[in-house]
Each structure stands twice: as C-alpha cells, then as structure tokens.
Amino acid sequence: MKKKTLLESEQHRNFLEEIAALPEGERVLSCLQCGTCSGTCPVAPLMDYAPRQIFAMIRAGMKKEVLTSVTPWMCSSCYECTVKCPAQIKITEIMYALKRESIKQGLVSPGTDVYRFYQHFTDIVSKHGRMNEMLLMMKYMALRHPVAMMSRVPVGLRMMMTGVMQVQPHRVKNAESFQKIVEKATALEARQ
Amino acid sequence: MKYLYYPGCSSKGTSRAYEESLLSVCRKLGIELEELEDWTCCGATSVVAVNKVLAFALSARNLALAEQKGKEMVTPCPSCWLMLTKANNAFREGTEPADKVREALAAGGLTYNGTVNVRHLMDFLVNVVGLEKVRKAVTNPLKGYRIAPYYGCQIVRPYAQNDDTYNPQNLEKIIEALGAEVAQFEGKTTCCSGALMATMKDDGVEMSRNILNSIKRASANIVVTPCPLCQLNLELAEFDEKQPWKETELPVLNLSQLVGLGLGLAPKELGLSRSILPGVEKKIKTAKKYSASLEAAEV
Ligand code: SF4
Ligand code: SF4
C-alpha cells in the first residue's frame, strides 16, 4: 500500500523525477548548467530566477520555490533557449508545464497576475470558440488595473476608429459538438 | 487548386488588415481560397499555459474539420501555424497528448487522421505559389524602398518551415521579388514580447522598441513581418512613443500588405487605413520619395 503521508522533504526529493517524468521533461536530467538558456532569454531580467537557475533548483528539489517563481509566467514562448540548448531540453515546453503545475498545486506566484490573462483567454475561447480581444482586455484590466487601462484609452479609441475592435463575441456554429470537446478535454487535463 | 484558409482570431480583430490584404493578393494571383467553415481558436500561447489537452484539442478540432474538406491549408499567423503543426505532429507521431485529444474530439463526433498539411503564408508564397509567379505579377516594383525583414519568433522557432532557424531567408526572397532592397538589421528573429505587451506593457514596449531602433539604424523605410502580433506590437510601441507621430516613424506592414503594394493593389484592398499609426499610406509614399532623392544625390 502506498504511504498516505509524504513528508515535505521527501516530496522535494522527488521533484526532479516528477519533472523528468513529464512528456516534455525527458531530457531534463542531462542539463549541463551551461547557462546558454539564460544568456539567450530576452526576458531574463524580468524573471526572479533565470532559466538555468530554474533547472538547478529543479535538480536541488526546490519544488515550492520553482512553482511559486514568476519565471514561467514571464516566458514569452520565443523558443530562443529551446533551439540553442546543447542538451536539447524542451525548455519552452517545460516553462508551460511549470505554469500548469503551479496552477494545479495552487502555487501561482503572488508576484504577477499574468496568470489571470491566460485564464481569461482560455475561458473566453472555451465559451465562445474564438478570441475576442476587447473582452479579454476588459476582463484582464478593468478591476485589477484600472489606471493602466485608462492609459490605453487613446490606442483603444484609435482601434475603434479603424474598425479592428470586435464588439460581439463569436458564436460557434456547431456549438454542441464544440462544448463537448471542451468539456472532455478539460476533464482529461484535470486527471493528469 | 483550391486551398483551405485558416484565418486565426486576430484576422477577425486587431489584424483585419492582414486578412483583407491576404484575400486581395490571392485574388490577384488567381489563387482560390476557401475559409475553413466553423473554425475556432488554435489556443495560441495562452491556453497551453493553463490546459494542455484543451490547447491541442482546439487545434486538432480545426484539423479534423479541414480533413473533411481537403489536404492543404494556409494561415497568415505564425502562432496558429505553430499550434496546428504541434497538434499535427502529435497525431502523426502518436506522441502525448494525442490519445487524450482523440478522445476529446470523439466526444464531439470528430476524428482526425493526420492528413492535413498546414503552411504559413510565407512558405506558401515562396514554395507553393512560387517566387517566379510573384515576380511576374508585380506591376508596381518597390524600387527605392529599403525593407526590413522582421520574422519574429514562432515562424522560425522551434520549427522553420522550409527555411533556416538561425538565418531565415524567405522574407528576403519575397522582398527582392517585389523589386525592393533588403535592409539587414540585427535582431530579425528577436522576440517582440508577444503577449507580454498586453500584460506588462512597459516591458513589452521596450522590447519592441529595441527592435525598431535596430531597424532604424539599418536605414530601412518600411518594416515587413509575417506575424500579426509582431505587427501589432511594433505599432503599439510606436504609438506609445510620441503623439502625434513624427515623419520618422516607420510603416510596419504585414506580409500580404507588402506583396499587395508590389502587385499594384489599392490601399483600401490592403487595409492600410487600419494601421494604428495614422497616415501610413502617406508615409509609404514619402519614404519612396526620400529614398529616390538619396539615390539621385548619390549619382
Ligand atoms: S541551455 Fe540547456 S543545458 Fe544549458 S543550462 Fe540551459 S537547460 Fe541546461
Ligand atoms: S522561450 Fe521563454 S525561457 Fe526560453 S528564451 Fe524565450 S522567453 Fe526565455
């Protein structure tokens, strides 16, 4: 029978194995700590730990520190690190995996709310089938970033003028099939 | 031959001009497109940050619908192209999360067998339409323009479709086919900041501005990009800089807007007035005059 209680220290020790066991984590054990990823990352200055450090921390079993880090949320998915890593580690995919993992474990960094943007994006697409940029910006900014939102009024107005702002959210034609796919995919994701 | 067309969400919103110009260019070149019926979002870089199975299922749904209609699909958006390609690879190679995605599609009565080929517009123009055909269709050679080829990230990384990841050339080839000169600059595949422009504007503006500055140092007078988000972000960075805009602000065009200029299409057919920077049409004209006067001065 499996142990019911895992001591915190033991959980940490398993962290490297957990990450290595992910479909995107296959090569994580061969990280050379060369720092190429940190050197090429255009957003490294915005991160609390540069990518190389994240891999060192994974190896050291610093689970909580990694999952509460803002690093994965700063990643812009530019794939610079992925194409340059000499160990061919799928770094960008691991950044995505760390984002999802931190959501699952309820450890999303309090230091950023970029997470909310992705969550609203996902909710809008799940509901309407297509992105509605205006709706997304309203949802993301209205309550939490009212001042920043005001600073975007001029560009918003300009975009209204040029006719690139959709007001009505999209409606999927075969909505029933679409909703079933979304529900099933979401259920399968939760089971992982 | 008829090609399926996957617009992607931004083509119906902030990047309407990309769709307008793409359709005009294809009409002019005699390429028949059919918009994929009932397509939905590809998930971009956002859904996969929250829900991986859903992200792949969204892309696979589009591929499944496409499979019922044909084999070849073209899209103007590098991010859509990458997501559709990732889903395609998972199905073709049987890698994770293909099984779960198959199950999700089945719940909605769909199946996908991995037979659809997805191309980005840039690859489509170079390798399907062919540069020769583009060259022959040019009625307004873009002589006198120095054009900066700005690729952005996802069209060359992690996969570059029929191009080089580190030093891609497809945009250069198109620029030359249109009769213009290439302005080489540092950072043609550097990140514009992507979605960070929405979430962390100041940092996003700085990243895009660095690219613009590099382009300006190469004395380009037009920027062309195959990515709707790169176009938007560079324009937002310029818009943020100073209002009203100086003559030195660079027109940032998407790929089909530039091709359309060479094919002699009218500004309206290319959606030029939808640019965030007002007066882009005029700037394009003055840019040419300016270059012409430099050339005249040289001889
Ligand atoms: S580039 Fe690859 S091998 Fe080098 S530190 Fe980064 S992850 Fe490790
Ligand atoms: S993909 Fe993410 S972590 Fe890698 S270089 Fe780009 S921003 Fe940095």
How would you explain this protein's 3D organization?
The complex is a heterodimer of chains A (192) and B (299). Chain A has 192 residues and is mainly α. Chain A folds into two domains: 97 residues, Alpha-helical ferredoxin (Fumarate Reductase Iron-sulfur Protein, Chain B, domain 2, Orthogonal Bundle); 78 residues, no CATH class. Helices cover 58% and strands 0% of the residues of chain A. The longest helix of chain A has 17 residues. By secondary structure, chain B is α/β, with parallel strands linked by helices. Chain B is built from twelve helices and eight strands. In chain B, helix 1 runs parallel beside helix 11, helix 3 crosses helix 4 and helix 9 crosses helix 10. Chain B has two domains: 119 residues, Glutathione S-transferase Yfyf (Class Pi), Chain A, domain 2 (Up-down Bundle); 168 residues, Rossmann fold, CATH 3.40.50.11810. The radius of gyration of chain B is 19 Å and the shape is globular. In chain B, strand 7, helix 10 and strand 8 form a beta-alpha-beta unit. Classes of the chains: A mainly alpha (192), B alpha/beta (299). Chains A and B meet through helix 7, helix 8, helix 9, helix 10 and helix 12 of A and helix 2, helix 3, helix 5, helix 8 and helix 9 of B. One iron/sulfur cluster binds next to helix 7 and helix 8 of chain A.
Provide a brief overview of the structure:
The complex is a heterodimer of chains A (192) and B (299). With 192 residues, chain A is mostly helical.
Distance between the termini of chain A: 21 Å
Helix/strand structural class of chain B? alpha/beta
List the total number of helices of chain B: 12
- How big is the Rg of chain B? 19 Å
Helix share, percent of chain A: 55-70%
